[in-house]
Each structure stands twice: as structure tokens, then as C-alpha cells.
Design brief:
Length: about 350
């Protein structure tokens, strides 16, 4: 049955994870949301969804991170809503500012140029700090250092299906390090040189690049160029120890030094995705088909009707983005030789 496939049958009793860090049915895991005080009611909406569909039965902690102190209203409302412990972290200046090697005039000229070209968030300084923070620093905040697993939740997302299994347990038992529900092509204008920096890293650190990685999903010409496929990182369930590994940190360092977070507008989605595709074995990346999800403007709705009914999904299957032309999930199935769910062809554009 589907529940067993998802790992819920193994939830009862003691559990030894592959990492050996956690025992007992509950994992050393937390939700994590980076938000402003002004995001309160939008994150409240997301919390309601996550609690109703999953966490009310599991009571995992929730870490809120902000570059400004959280106000009392934010803390009061979110604490009341989270069934686990809600915790609040203030991000240090060193993780949310321009590194001293960045040429301010050059960065400013880029923002002005991108504003004229109407590139989304192209004129924003704070968005760039946010992307750099999510790429290189969220997983090493003092509060996050206490956990092994994270589930990222953004404001105003929706969960469409009951999650009757523990995705953290599933990840541990199946040796997964990173997961996604939606993948797509990145705007080329935001990352023109990210692959140059990536190639520099590959030359510098071949020791971090295992055989059997997912580079074929990122590149259509054996690593020469980037095809712009990325996992949509507003949803992520992943392993924090992987992000804290030498391999990931050295990858981030090469990218950061090249300045593309400020001289272009690199998103954390392509950064995490390229890292996962290069540094992990492809079996360590998981597509969570069971988790029906929406973040404006895309939906993941399980293709299988049986799955939708069993998990009380309320998404319209017609909205499922997986097999549409702008999705990279078809390519993911292709490259990993995964079994396509029945009816997938009816959902193409
Ligand atoms: P989009 O999904 O790419 O359109 O970007 P969002 O506006 O959703 O931002 C991504 C995440 O970063 C969300 O969780 C936001 O709440 C958060 N975020 C964005 N900008 C800031 C900021 O300046 N400060 C803080 N604390 N959080 C931010
Ligand atoms: Mn968002």
C-alpha cells in the first residue's frame, strides 16, 4: 500500500537512523522559516497548513529566523500555533551584509541595470542578502546547529494532502540528503556566470564530486554548460550535516568569492540545486510526490488519483506542474529512470 511505500509502516518503535544521531521515533529535526515581522499573517497561514496536515501528530520544533528582532506579537501568535517548541533567532550582521570584498559601485550599477531590464527582485538589496543567507548561513545559525534535519517553510504556502508518514524518518531510512516537490528552469538573466564559478569549483575540488551524481540533470552537454534546471527551494526537506560538510561549504565559498550574489542576482535555489546535483549521489535526492504543495504560482499535486484520495488531497490535478513544459521534473524522471505515475501524459500542457 502507499503508506507503507512512504515509510510510515516503520514509524512504530525504536529507530536507528543511518547517521546514528537520533534514536526513538522522532528525528532531530525542525521546521525553519526566515521571515520579517511583517510576514506574520502569511507565515501563520503556512503554519496552519503544516500543523493540520502533519505536525499536529508529530510536534516538531519550529525555528524562526530574522535579520531584525522579532516583535512580541509575532512570537505570541506563532508560539500559540506551533505544536512543538517555537524558537526565535536573530541573524548576525556577518551573515546579512555585504562582504568587504564586494565593490559597492559595481553592485549598485548592476541593481540599476536590472531595474531597467525589469528583472524580478533585480533592484533589491535585501533580496540578495536573503538569497546569500539561505545559500550559505541558515544551517549554521546557533539554533540550527542543534538539529540534523530541516524542513523549510515560506509564508503563504499550501499543503494539499495529509502527510501520514514522517518525511524526516523517510529521509534517514532511505539515506536521502535533499528533497524537492517542484523543479523548473531558472531565469537566465539572474545567473549568467554561476556555471563558470561552478566549473572553477569542479576543477579546484574534484575530491568533492562523486561518481553517480545528478550532473546530467543540470547539464545537457556533460557539464560544459548549465541548462538552468533547479529544485524550487521555497520547499526543502534536507540534511543539515550535508550543508555543514566541507564539500558544501567549499562550494559556497567559491561562489561567494566570485560575488554573484551581488554582481548578478543568484538565488539560493540554483545554489542548493547545483550543490545537490554535483556533490550528492543521485539516489540521495528525493522527489516527495506525496506532498501536495503550492507556492505562488506553481502547484505540485500527486498525479495518482489513488494517492490523492487516500491522503485527502484538495488540489486540482489539472494544476499539477510536474509534467508541464517549464518543469524540470520530467527530466528528473528520465535521468533517474524512475517509473512515471499513471496518467502523467494527460497532464502535459
Ligand atoms: P520569493 O518566494 O522568491 O518571491 O521570495 P519571498 O519574498 O517569499 O522571500 C523568500 C523568503 O525569505 C521568505 O521566507 C521571506 O519571508 C524571507 N525574506 C525575504 N526578504 C527578507 C528580509 O529582508 N528579511 C527577512 N527576515 N526575511 C526575508
Ligand atoms: Mn516565497
Amino acid at each position: 500500500d502507499l503508506a507503507a511505500e512512504s515509510g510510515s509502516s516503520k514509524l512504530t518503535g525504536k529507530l536507528e537512523t543511518s547517521s546514528g544521531l537520533s534514536t526513538g521515533a522522532k528525528m532531530n529535526a525542525t521546521f525553519v522559516s526566515l521571515t520579517r515581522n511583517s510576514d506574520l499573517w502569511d507565515i501563520a497561514d503556512s503554519i496552519r497548513n503544516v500543523e493540520d496536515r502533519f505536525n499536529r501528530n508529530y510536534h516538531y520544533d519550529w525555528v524562526f529566523l530574522n535579520d531584525q528582532p522579532f516583535d512580541e506579537t509575532f512570537k505570541k501568535v506563532t508560539t500559540a500555533m506551533v505544536s512543538g517548541t517555537a524558537r526565535y533567532g536573530l541573524i548576525g550582521k556577518e551573515h546579512w551584509s555585504f562582504p568587504d570584498f564586494i565593490d559597492q559601485d559595481k553592485a549598485k550599477a548592476v541593481r540599476e541595470d536590472m531595474a531597467e531590464r525589469k528583472i524580478i527582485y533585480g533592484d533589491s538589496i535585501s533580496y540578495r542578502h536573503m538569497c546569500r543567507f539561505e545559500s550559505g548561513f541558515f544551517f549554521r545559525q546557533p539554533l540550527m546547529n542543534e538539529y540534523e534535519w530541516y524542513w523549510r517553510v515560506e509564508p503563504s504556502i499550501k499543503l494539499f494532502c495529509d502527510i501520514g508518514f514522517d518525511p524526516f524518518v523517510f529521509m534517514a531510512e532511505n539515506k536521502k540528503k535533499y528533497s524537492f516537490v517542484i523543479s523548473l528552469f531558472e531565469y537566465a538573466e539572474t545567473i549568467p556566470t554561476i556555471w563558470d564559478s561552478t566549473k572553477k569549483f569542479m576543477k579546484l575540488h574534484p575530491e568533492h564530486i562523486p561518481e553517480g551524481n545528478a550532473v546530467d540533470w543540470l547539464s545537457d552537454d556533460g557539464g560544459e554548460s548549465y541548462n538552468h534546471c533547479h529544485f524550487w527551494s521555497n520547499f526543502e526537506i534536507g540534511n543539515l550535516n550535508w550543508l555543514r560538510s566541507k564539500a558544501y561549504l567549499e562550494f559556497f565559498e567559491v561562489l561567494d568569492q566570485d560575488g554573484g550574489f551581488f554582481y548578478e542576482r543568484w538565488g539560493d535555489a540554483p545554489v542548493h540545486s547545483i550543490a545537490a546535483g554535483l556533490l550528492l549521489k543521485k539516489e540521495e535526492i528525493h522527489f516527495f510526490d506525496d506532498i501536495g504543495y503550492w507556492h505562488v504560482p506553481f502547484t505540485h499535486c500527486p498525479t495518482s488519483e489513488q494517492k490523492r484520495l487516500e491522503n485527502k488531497c484538495h488540489c486540482n490535478p489539472k494544476d499539477n506542474f510536474d509534467w508541464k513544459g517549464y518543469s524540470c521534473t520530467t527530466k528528473w524522471f528520465e535521468k533517474n529512470e524512475l517509473k512515471y505515475p499513471e496518467g502523467w501524459e494527460d497532464q502535459k500542457d
